[in-house]
Design goal:
- The protein is of the alpha/beta class.
- The protein folds into two domains: about 10-220, Rossmann fold, CATH 3.40.50; about 220-250, no CATH class.
- It has helices at about 20, 40-50, 70-85, 95-100, 105-120, 145-160, 190-200, 225-245; strands at about 10-15, 60, 90, 125-130, 165, 260-265.
- The chain has a six-stranded mixed beta sheet with strand order 5-4-3-1-2-6, sandwiched between helices.
- Helix 2 packs across helix 7 (about 190-200), helix 3 packs parallel to helix 5 and helix 5 packs parallel to helix 6 (about 145-160).
- The protein is globular and about 55 Å long.
Amino acid sequence: MTEHSPVPRWSRYVAIGDSFTEGLWDAPDGVEAPQRGWADLLASHLSERRKSAGESTLQYANLAIRGKKLRSILVDQLPVALSMKPDLVSMIGGGNDILRPSTDIDRLARNLEARVVRLREAGVDVLLGTGYDSFGSAVFSTTRSRVGVYNSLIWSMARRHGAYVLDTWGMRSLADPRMWSEDRIHLTGEGHARVAQAALVGLGLDPDNPAWDDPLTPLPPTPRLTRARQDAAWVRVHVYPWATRRLRGRSSGDLRVPKRPQLSPLD
C-alpha cells in the first residue's frame, strides 16, 4: 500500500456467491478444510490497512457456497447478509447459470440489478464481478459471448447505481494455465491472490503488489500426446462427475453450509 492509498472506510464486509467466492481450490490447509480464496484475502488486506491506520479490525462473513446459481445467491444468501447490517457486500454469481446454453442473460442481469438497488438503498456499498475471458479454451470458449454480454450489463448497472466492479475479464495473468486448478474452472491459490489484488483496485484502493497482473514467464509448449492424456484425465475426473450431477439435478453445494456464517472480527 502506498502512502497515498485511502484507508478502507468499510468495517463490516459480507461476501456472497458461489465457488469463486467460497475460494474453491485455494486450500492451504488441505482440500477437506474450509477453502480460503480471494474474498478472504481481500478481507485480510482491508483489515490490515484499517489496523495500520488505527481503526478497528474488519468484521467479516462469507456465505458463499459452491455450485450455487444466481437465484439461490440472491434469494437465500442476500437476506442473511442484509440482516448483518454490512457496509460492504461483494455479490458475484451467474457463472453456474451461464454454463447452461438456455440461460436468459438479460433476466439474470435484471434480477441482479434489482438486488443492487436494494443494497444501495440500504446504504450498502456493492462489489460486483465480471466473468473471466475464456478465449483459447477448447471447452469454455463456447460461453465467451454470453459472458461478454453479462459483463456489459454488469458494468452498466454499476454505473447507474454507484457500485464497484472486480474486473476479472481484464486480467491478463488469468490467461496463464498456472492460475487454474486441475479442474480448469477454479483458481489456484496464486490465482485467488491476484484476484484479491484486482478487488482492491476495483474498490478504488492501491494494490499491495504493483505487479499483481503481470504475466508469468511463458511455459514451453506441451507435447501433443501429453496434452491428449491430460485432457482425457480431466474429462474422467472432473467433467464426467459434473455432468452426472447435472443430469440428476444435484449440485456440489448440496448439504453444504457457509464456511464463515457469522459476522466476526478477522484474526
